[in-house]
Every structure is written in structure tokens, then in C-alpha cells.
Design brief:
Layout: E1 10-13, E2 25-28, E3 38-48, H1 50-56, E4 75-82, E5 95-98, E6 101-103, H2 109-112, E7 123-124, E8 147-151, E9 156-157, H3 164-183, E10 193-196, E11 201-205, H4 210-215, E12 220-224, H5 228-231, E13 239-244, E14 257-265, H6 277-283, E15 286-289, H7 295-308, E16 314-318, H8 322-330, E17 337-341
Parallel strand pairs: 10-11, 10-13, 11-12, 13-14, 14-15, 16-17
Antiparallel strand pairs: 1-2, 3-4, 3-8, 3-17, 4-5, 5-9, 6-7
Helix pairs in contact: 3-7
Organism: Saitozyma podzolica
GO molecular function, one term: zinc ion binding
Cofactor: Zn(2+)
Amino acid sequence: MSSDSQYTFQGWAARDNDDYKGSLKLQSFDPKPWDEDDVDVRIMYCGICGSDVHVLSGAFFPVSAMAPLICGHELVGEVIRVGSQVENGLEVGTIVGVGAVSNSCRECEYCVEECEVFCKKRTTTYAGVFHRGNGAGYKTKGGYASHWRGPSAFAYPIPAGYDPACAAPMMCAGITVFSALRRFGAGVTAKQVGVIGIGVTTISRGEAKRQEAAKLGSSNYIAVSDDVATSVKGCERTLDLVICCTGGSYTDYLKLLKPRGTFVQAAIGTSPVPISNISLITGGLTIVGALADGKAEYKDMFDFAAKHNIKPWINRWDMKDINKALPAFTNGEAKYRMVLVNTENGGSL
């Protein structure tokens, strides 16, 4: 166990549904009670995810119900304390990442398969409640903070040489898309792949991302307007797989799929989505949600990313400027992921 126990946990907290617009407050908080399989992590980086904004705006529940609410589930930092039952081979000094789920029952069929995200007692990294150990009943605090404490089994080592700032968005955005691509046969059974966002075939609002999509390796670009049905004319039945990284209605995007194609929803929206059952039936289409399985998949993703030098494009913001970063994020200024940086913890702007 590290002798470094003289540190204060601080985080940027919201107390009502409007605080994300520029009124988060930095405050100290008590971490969960210590368990011997825990680690303490000095947070260097934390990505901003669209889900954070949904939660902070009260889209799923009133912020006051979880106040003080400290978001962030794309956190990366240095292990500074380990318990006697530490897992994942972690030791003081290891650089780790923590994603959207940071505990589970460890006993159900999904946990045994290392698909902990499907566990009925999974604990989300923020706005959740621990169900086991000394921390049972404790409300979780996320990565918009100086430190994180939680089960070492859910703190994943970042490969040596991989930029830890780039690793932050991989903990949610990266693992979600990686899981969807692999699970639904991209490049194997699905030869023609489109991503609503940026992908092999990029499907995006307007022309603004065309050049940048090409730089990222996209070979085709479909510019859509508010009239999606008109925008996709001429591109019908060209794709085996479409991965949607935005919320909203997608009925007209189904026209892009070949018969027996698959549409994967990889982003969380806040409104019901109408679907044409005629399109599903006549095309033999599949619509499915994407969610990373668990521990094993994180390792596979980072091994793949390190081997092929795959890194996200990020904008770094000093975490002290979080009340500027979140409004910029909601205004669509991210190119293409925003990462908050704790410079005092060793993060680099």
C-alpha cells in the first residue's frame, strides 16, 4: 500500500439541472470507504461524453437527486494506493483508465463471462450506488475530479507508450465503437460499413467534416441535411452495417442498408425513436444497441489501438476551465473529443 494517504478528493459538482451551463462548483468530498481490492487513482485526464451532458441537464433524473453530482466516466490517471487484494496486476505508478462501469456483483453469468456491463447490480462510475463491500450504499463520484477510488478490477492498465490523454475517450466512445465493429463483423462479414459520425463511409450533417473525414481514412462521404430521405438518394442499399454515433430519428438512414443489413445504435438519446416496421420487414433488417461487454474487451481494444497506432482527435481543456469547456461541448465545438486535464496531477495540455 502506498504511504501517500495525505490527499484530498475534490470534484466539480452540480446541484441542479442548469449548473452544467457554467456553474459547477469545485468541492471536497469523501471517497467510498476503503476495500482491500480498491485502488486510489490520481486523475490526470477525463473525457467529456455526451452522456455526461444528458445527465447533468436532468434528462434522466433530477440532478438534485444525486447531488453533489460529479460526472465523468472517461478517466485516466496514476495509481497512488493499492489494497492487499489488488487485481489486474496494478501497482503504485500504473497508468489506468476507468470507464462507465466500475463495479458489479462478480457472481452472475454475465460477470463470469466478463460482460459486467450487463450485470443487474453493475455500478456506474457516477450517479450510481455501490452494492458490495464496505462502500455498499455509497453514491459514486466520477472523473471530473482530482482522485478516484474504486475496485481495481475495473481500472484497466493503459499500454506503455500510448498517450494517456488519448486513452481517456477510449474508455467510453472508443470501446463502444470498437465493440460494435467487432461484434457485427466489420471487415469480415460486413464489408461496407457506414458510421453516422466519422467512419469508413462517413454520414454527417453538411459538408463541414468532409476533409477531416478523409484525413481520418474515410473513403466515402454522405452529406445529409434535415431532409435525410432526400440526402441519401442514390446511396440506398450500399452498406452492410451502419453504426449510429448520434441520437435522434434514424428511419431514413435504414435506406442505406443492404437487405439483411444491421443498424447499430451506439449513442444514447433522450427522445423516443420512430421506426418504420415496413423497412425492417421488407429489408430483413436488424436494429440493435451497442454496449461494451466488459474487462476482456478493454484489453483487446487497447492492444489493437496500440498495435495500429489508433488515437482519437482530442481538444485538451484545463479542468479548471470546465465551466467553459462544457458550454463549448454543448455548442458543438469538440473536434472530436474534449479531454479535461489536471495539470497539477501530471496531465499535459
